[in-house]
Amino acid sequence: MKLTNFFDGKWQDIGEGKYTAVLNPANGEQLAEVRMSTKDDVDLAVAAARKAQKKWALVPAPKRADYLYEIGRLMKEKKEHLAQVLTKEMGKVIEEGRGEVQEGIDMAFYMAGEGRRLFGETTPSELADKFAMSVRAPIGVVGLITPWNFPVAIATWKSFPAIVAGNTFIWKPATETPMMAYEMAKIFEEAGLPDGVANIVFGSGSEVGTAMIEHPDVKVISFTGSTETGSKVAELGGKHLKKVSLEMGGKNAVLVMEDADLSLAVEGILWSAFGTAGQRCTACSRVIVHKDVKKELEAKLLEQMEKLTIGNGLDEYVKIGPVINKKALEKIHSYTLIGKEEGANLLVGGKILEDGDLAYGNYYAPTIFTDVSPNMRIAQEEIFGPVVSLIEVGSLEEAIEVNNGVKFGLSSSIFSRDVNKVFRAQRDLDTGIVYVNAGTTGAEIHLPFGGTKGTGNGHRDSGVAALDVYTEWKSIYVDFSGKLQRAQIDTE
Ligand code: UN1
């Protein structure tokens, strides 16, 4: 199967394209080949998006929303198929694959609802017989750059608010997961979305991503990925005066207080640290535990970890799938070596798994380090794999300080039965998302998603806040006095 670009409502394979293999991370099988597009492809796709946008902006928002209802319905109808493709291509276990597709369906229906709101404001004018209002205006063509770890959900977080608000988009999915983009393009076609509203260009960040950011007709860039790449996107976007929305890394912690329900905390930690093999930007990669319960927590974690079956995510009983590719596997393992060198105690895991069939895929043993000090690299840097560091503290204040002592600020969580501790923590934890008595993952699509510090640049995906990325405020003054009235100037 050869995956080519999709723009102007057609599958495009213009000129000499180079192709690269898409591999199943569970067993190395080649699933497809994907076109590595060029700047010329981007120019053609943007031209199609620009042409379509003029008409699309004139379609009333509730009518634009009708397409989203249809897209959501089709996603629901094909949910199992989409989840299967997702698991094959990205590796997450099928239960999570279904969950991710559901996240996309939820986003379709939620943003479709926004089509009948898209609220503006009326504001009293300072002059008589004058009416003042502000509306959310579409911006134009928006560029979406999405990662492989949530190939459907994150694309829907960005593309659905963009189109309901009257923009058209050009989307560059990650090269590792183009099949999900192909599936979404088929759904856009089937839903009858007008040609040029949704456009997909495959290829590398350095060529295609750069061309999108530099293109004068792409007005907004919404990016999710690593902090390293994100800061390059911001730099280039800044140079070209683009509105750039960034969603980047995390070093998310679960705080376990001395009065916590430890069994519940263990469930929360295991799910958020090892679900998706730790490859979520919201994944728990630090546990900050009160010294009075540290030993008990360690024992309970070890006991429960035995139940984590590892293997191909398509097998329903498997709890942890592979990581995305060999490069990721090596990066994760390098952190185990760093942790050992730094003097942390390896409690469990810490190795690449190669027994039997696992040798054909990219499997890493769920890993816990303990006696980690807050400044070690394993406690500071994003690993993006199933590796978690236990850090001991003596108080809530210290726990909050350790939580905040990293350059990221996406998600955090606290397990405690003490309402005073909980309320203090939700106020003082410097992250965009805070959970109480739950792990660090599992954000719902109708709340703003994003983080502070090195995680983002103040914008949010999801929730009504996402509309701020894809709209611009336009203020309109209507004077019905029949004479020239001048603001700020006394005319009496
Ligand atoms: C991500 O890891 O990039 O909150 C997104 C969660 C999911 C989305 C994660 N709903 O874990």
Describe what you observe in this structure:
This protein is of the alpha/beta class. Helix content is 37%, strand content 23%. It has 14 helices and 24 strands. It has helices spanning 39-56, 61-77, 79-90, 94-114, 153-164, 178-190, 205-214, 227-239, 262-274, 294-305, 326-342, 396-404, 419-428, 466-470; strands spanning 2-3, 5-7, 10-12, 18-23, 30-36, 121-124, 130-138, 141-145, 168-172, 198-200, 218-224, 243-247, 252-256, 284-290, 345-348, 352-353, 363-364, 367-370, 387-393, 408-409, 411-415, 433-436, 452-453, 471-479. The protein has a seven-stranded mixed β-sheet, sandwiched between helices. Helix 1 (39-56) packs across helix 7, helix 2 packs antiparallel against helix 4 and helix 9 (262-274) packs across helix 10 (294-305). The relative contact order is 0.14. The model has no long low-confidence stretch (mean pLDDT 97). The chain binds 2-aminohexanedioic acid. 2-aminohexanedioic acid is lined by residues 103, 149-150, 280-282, 441-443.
Structure, briefly:
By secondary structure, the protein is of the alpha/beta class. Helix content is 37%, strand content 23%.
